[in-house]
Amino acid sequence: MLFSDKELREILLSEDQDFLEELYKEARETAKATFSNKIYIRALIEFSNYCKEGCYYCGINRNKYSVHRFRLAKDEIYSAAETAYEAGFRTFVLQGGEDTHFTDEDFAEIISHLKKNYDAAITLSLGVRSYEAYKLFKDAGTDRFLLRHETADVDIFQKLHPWDQSLERRLKAIYDLKELGYQVGTGFMVAAPFTNHESHIKDIKLIREIDPAMIGIGPFIPSKGTRFEAYPAGTVELTRKLLAILRIEHPKALIPSTTALNTISEMGRIKGILSGANVIMPNVSPKFARDNYNLYDGKKASGLEAIEGVRELNEYLKEFGYEIEFTRGDYNV
Ligand code: SAM
């Protein structure tokens, strides 16, 4: 079901708690119709915080000099994957800054190694690369790719990024990935600087056009030392409304309840799930990586947010009638 623009405006402006509770209920019932009470888990491996890009909002952008930079060696990536596999994870998500130290061939080697040694899905989240690179990664066995469009408003996109990036370039990458047969994830930051309800309506409509397998949204959170350090974070309420809208419009999409949402609210994780999300991505990076992969201030990376808390997380989810699903959790059209 697709909402009209008028309905979208009504939801985004609404402060009527009864109306919103009904919306969240419809969203979680939509998720349950596809996924029952199962929550898919993905092992998040943050492999590098070096980045050639200068995204103004991002805590690891190339111009932030206070960042202690790290990159994992291949063996450290393999060891994180091994730990995750032993804990029952069947999807590895390799996420990082756009680190040119890793050549396309390096990634292909890492992907081939993981595919050879583990019966698991591989998701990449490493930004814009060429069509040829994406083809190489796909041929090496990659299953999925996350690349948020960030904002569907061209002018706002340009205010959030330096001149050498464009929405057009990011969209071309998203469509390249689709053409190559990846399960593609896109999404945006909620309430990033300059965005507003109208730009979020554009996000919702762009996601309809892309028709992705995965949709990742989370609140913008300021990061000290970036040009947007004084801007307010997005709210739980707006994130929940947008999650619910996206779930109702995309009943089969894999939608994470993100770390960013859990960072701005004690109960953020479960609030995301109760608004229609069905994926959680616990952190399995080594401690020094977790400590330095700070996309925004206060980012959570331990406890229920991480691999060591996965059993406890399952118990916690059960209190709300959900449970972890330990299989790959592919997108099924
Ligand atoms: N470089 C890759 C890319 O662009 O897809 C992957 C890493 S990037 C750091 C992952 C995501 O972090 C981005 O898509 C962005 O939406 C999110 N992010 C960055 N800074 C953020 C902030 N201050 N608040 C919330 N999310 C942020």
For the record, the CATH architecture stands as Alpha-Beta Barrel
Task: Report the biggest beta sheet as strand number plus sense, adding barrel if it closes.
Answer: 6 strands, parallel
* Structural domain tally: 1
Shape: globular
Total DSSP helices:
13
Low-pLDDT stretches: none
Q: Fraction of residues in helices? A: 40-55%
Q: Count the beta strands.
A: 9
Strand content: 5-15%
CATH first level:
Alpha Beta
Q: Record the strand order, biggest sheet.
A: 2-3-4-5-6-7
User: In angstroms, what separates the terminal alpha carbons?
Assistant: 16 Å
Bound molecule types: S-adenosylmethionine
What is the string of SSEs from the N terminus onward? HHEEHEHEHEHHEHEHHHEHHE
Can you put this structure into words, describing what you see?
Helix 3 links the parallel strand 2 (about 45-50) and strand 3. Helix content is about 40%, strand content about 15%. The protein has a single domain (about 5-325), classed as Alpha-Beta Barrel (TIM Barrel), CATH 3.20.20.70. It has helices spanning about 5-15, 15-35, 75-85, 105-115, 130-140, 155-160, 165-180, 195-210, 235-250, 260-265, 270-275, 285-290, 310-320; strands at about 40, 45-50, 90-95, 120-125, 145, 185-190, 215-220, 280, 325. The mean pLDDT is about 95. It is of the alpha/beta class and about 325 residues long. S-adenosylmethionine (SAM) binds near residues 95, 98, 148, 218 and 223.
